[in-house]
Amino acid sequence: MKKIKAIEIDVDKCNGCRACEVICSAFHAAPKYSSANPEKSRIRLAFDPLRQMYVPVLAGEYTKFECNGRDTYTIDGKKYDECSFCRSACPSRTLFKDPDSGLPLKCDMCEELPDGEEPLCVQWCLSDALTYVEREEEGEDVQTRKEMEVGLESMVKQHGLKTVMDTLARIKKETTG
Ligand code: SF4
Ligand code: SF4
Hints:
The chain contains four helices and six strands, in the order βαββββαβαα. By secondary structure, it is of the alpha+beta class. It has two domains: 2-137, 2-Layer Sandwich (Alpha-Beta Plaits), CATH 3.30.70; 140-176. Strands 1-6 form a two-stranded antiparallel sheet. Strands 2-3 form a two-stranded antiparallel sheet. α3 packs across α4 (161-176). The longest helix has 20 residues, at 140-159. The mean pLDDT is 89. Residues 14-20, 45, 54, 56, 124-125, 127, 129-130 line the site of one iron/sulfur cluster (SF4).
């Protein structure tokens, strides 16, 4: 098991104050706290001010390609396209890219903060829309083993245990000489 750091988002509690964008961009400015520019923040608000709908979105991984997604979301009767709540910096938009350098931005959970201190956007969110959590998750090795077990089980069902065992023995012989 490994420890995963995460931020839980309660959209219903977000009031659109954008304090999270301000503190995140200020913390990552060079020098630190020398400026605040929401476009450089690793958390951004997808918002619809008319309906008072605010969705904080944390910057995720950079992706080289557009996903060609065609999904739509309908919230309170209003349609949003698939990019509206996406976390990726991608070629099709400027979101989550540094406006000066063009480099992608990714939430780093404020990794330079002292141990035990909560991420800054969580600290600055006075509405409790952002909550810091740590949880235990299975490591990749456990997940890979489970996937292999599922694959082997299905092969045994399809070909029988003896055939699978004979094949594994042959592969072992071929690979180990
Ligand atoms: S600080 Fe909290 S309430 Fe304000 S915009 Fe960010 S998530 Fe929403
Ligand atoms: S956890 Fe830190 S780096 Fe990530 S969005 Fe919040 S303030 Fe920015």
